[in-house]
Amino acid sequence: MLILVNIIGTMFDILHSTNLTHRIMKKIIYFALAISLFGCKDAIKTEVNNDFLIAENIKFDEPTINTNLTITTKADLLGYWVGQFTDDMPQNENEEEYIDEDFFGIDYEYNKKITFSIDKIKGTEIIGHSIVSGNIQKFKGKVTETPFTFEINVKEPGNEKSDGEFVLTIKKKDTLLSGKWNAFKVKENKINKRKLELSKKIFEYNPNNKIEDRFVDFHKSAIKKVEYDSEDSVGNPIKQSYDDEQYFTTTDTIFKINPSTEILKKELVENLSKGDVFILRNLIFARHGFAFRDKTLRGFFDYHSWYMPVFSDVTKDLTKIEKENVALLLRYEENAKEYYDHFGR
Amino acid sequence: MFARISKYIIWGSYFYFSFLLLLITLQYIPYNTDVAFLRIKQDEIALDYYKIAFFTHVYTSIFLMILGFFQFSKTIKRKYINVHRWSGRVYAVIILFLSGPSGLVMSYHANGGIFSKTAFVILSVLWMSFTFLSVYFILKKDIINHQKFAIRSFALTLSAISLRLFKYIIVFLFHPQQMEAYRIVAWLGWTFNLLVAEIIIIYFISNKMKTRKINQ
User: Fold this and answer.
1) Which parts of A288-343 fold into alpha helices (H)?
2) Inter-chain CB proximity B168 and A341 less than 8 Å
3) Which residue in chain A is spatially nearest to B183 when comparing CA positions?
4) Start and end of every YARHG domain (chain A) (predicted)?
5) Is the dihedral of CA B111, B115, B121, B124 positive or negative?
6) Span B144-172, pLDDT tens digits
7) d(CA B203, CA A43)
8) A15, A21 in Cβ contact below 8 A?
9) Which residue out of B14, B17, B19, B86 would a mutagenesis test of the A interface target, given it has the greatest number of A Cβ atoms within 10 Å?
10) How far apart are CA A45 and CA B35, in angstroms?
11) Interface contact A41-B12, CB threshold 8 A
């Protein structure tokens, strides 16, 4: 910043000392200086911070996965259990908040996908971790065997606001693990009671898992004026316009592109929309079971039946093609973010 | 009065946008091949000749904005003709030997395919030609033609500003895809300037010739 002021300062000095200009010229330079200091870097670009790249690092034991989907012994419980983690609060108490939070029919908070991973069973002791909204939390507790069921009762450490206790049951020879979750800190959590219905799923990386829907971010939009021909009250043709709200979204091109199996060409990427680039990059992570922290991405991939949020960091798992594509897509994404609607480039 | 105000507005915005160009240039100081525009030019920047062309273009072109100001200030032309001459020489040398050729090299690798590549190639060829002709005519002491080509040359120099300004306006109004906007401004950015230059030439220079004839 100081350098810039100096440069303009010397420019002014040169003009001044050689007496080239009148007083007005000085004013212009001061004027230019004033606006430029105002605008400064904001005028040429948006500063982007890459916080979406940083993953929290919570260590947990890799689960010993048991591939039996039907549970007959205790050891069969080991593995990833995936399902819906839904609000179980008494209805009327919450009604007002429902209306506030429900945005265009998308419920981010009330219905989440949960991955309940049972990592170790030692006698009656059970250790594992859960992944909700990209947050990983460990749990510990007991598993008891009754003649017809297994009962799991585990607690999270309690250092986080959202920690709580799970009570789950599964019938022997069944595949459905269901139960309840209660938060420790009842008042601090808007939803402090949830129910779960989980079924065991083996995580498998499949580079051909497809995007099934269009991505729309209702929180990001731009207003575009659309003009149309109309008539006034006496029949003269006039132009009228309305504001069309355009959301950050993807186009149909992404259904034809597979960023996990083909190396993307520059010429292709530069013709994609901002939304396309964003989703293609995150599709790679989703296929590897990355647990997204971003609300909208989570909402989007949670609806895909193949999506399983199991890992908090998948960078090591990416294939060579994917690594290259992520780097390329990210470059275009950042460039678009920084310079798209600015003077600079 | 109106003419005066508009003159100040024009010079004011000229300095403002030159300052923004300076900010864009400063992104590449200290030397770094992985920032800003170069983030999407990684394949090209690996080529040595592109690297040389790019940084020559970025580091030298910014001076044209200040030198251009010296060229067209009437006060300078009237009272300090040597400042006009010397800054003009530097301006011409920069375009003919540094900024122009490097721009031509870069235009061959421009984003947006053949459509925008053609635009940038024509731009850089015309830019150098007009600058050369402007120098040629002043050596022949043909001031009218010197002025005509100097105006055209400077109009193309200003495409650095107008291209970005058009991009900003087009994105603001129509939200096109990034490359689409780039293809449009690759052409619009300098053809519009050239059009304005021709209008200026017709009005101002022909007026000047008329008054000169009357005086004789």
Assistant:
1) 295-302, 320-339
2) yes
3) A271
4) 252-334
5) negative
6) 999 999 999 999 999 999 999 999 898 88
7) 34
8) yes
9) B19
10) 12
11) no
Q: Is the pLDDT of residue A216 over 60?
A: yes
User: Rounded to the nearest 5 degrees, what angle is found at the Cα of B123, between the Cα atoms of A43 and B26?
Assistant: 30
Q: Hey, is A108 helix, strand or coil?
A: coil
Residue A74 CB contacts under 8 Å (≥ 6 apart), including other chains? A121, A143, A145, A150
B46 phi, psi to nearest 5 deg: -70, -25
Q: Which residues in B166-182 are b (16+ Cβ under 10 Å) and which e?
A: bbbebbeeebebbbbbb
**How many other C-beta atoms lie within 10 A of the C-beta of residue A162?**
16
What does the alpha-carbon distance between residue A191 and residue A36 come to, in Å, rounded to a whole number? Answer: 49
* Contact criterion met (CB below 8 Å) for B40 and A267: no
Buried b (16+ CB within 10 A) or exposed e, A12-34: beebeeeebbeeebeebbebbbe
Of the given ranges (A226-235, A292-301, B51-60, B173-182), which has the lowest mean pLDDT?
A226-235
Tokens of A160: 């986080």
Cβ pair B168:A20 closer than 8 A:
no
**Looking at residue B177, what is its pLDDT?**
78
Structure tokens that stand for A263 in this block: 């190396």
Put simply, whether B73 touches A (Cβ < 8 Å) is: yes
Domain ranges of chain B: 2-215
Cβ contacts of B171 on chain A, cutoff 8 Å: 340-341
- Dump pLDDT digits (tens) for A39-76: 555 677 766 554 444 444 455 566 667 777 777 788 88
**Residue A200 clears pLDDT 70, i.e. is over it:** yes
Q: How far is CA B152 from CA A11, B133, B192, in A?
A: 26, 10, 12
Q: Which residues contact A124 (CB under 8 A, 6 or more apart)?
A: A142, A143, A144
Among the partner-chain residues A3, A21, A332, the one whose CB lies closest to the CB of B75 is A21
Share of chain A above pLDDT 90, in %: 3
Are A132 and A191 in contact, with CB atoms under 8 Å apart? Answer: no
Q: How far is A320 from chain B (nearest CA, A)?
A: 18
Mean pLDDT score, B52-81: 90
Q: Does A334 contact B39 at a Cβ distance shorter than 8 Å?
A: yes
Structure tokens that stand for A305 in this block: 């039946």
Segment (H or E) for A87: strand A79-87
Q: Could you tell me which residue, B9 or A28, shows the higher pLDDT?
A: B9
Rounded Cα gap, residues A223 and B152, in angstroms:
38
More confident residue, A320 or A214: A320
Q: Are A177 and A169 in contact (CB under 8 A)?
A: yes
pLDDT at site A101: 46
For residue A343, list chain B residues with Cβ-Cβ distance below 8 A. 17, 20, 164-165, 167-168
pLDDT digits (tens, 9 = 90+) for A171-186: 888 888 889 998 888 8
CB pairs under 8 A between A and B: 99
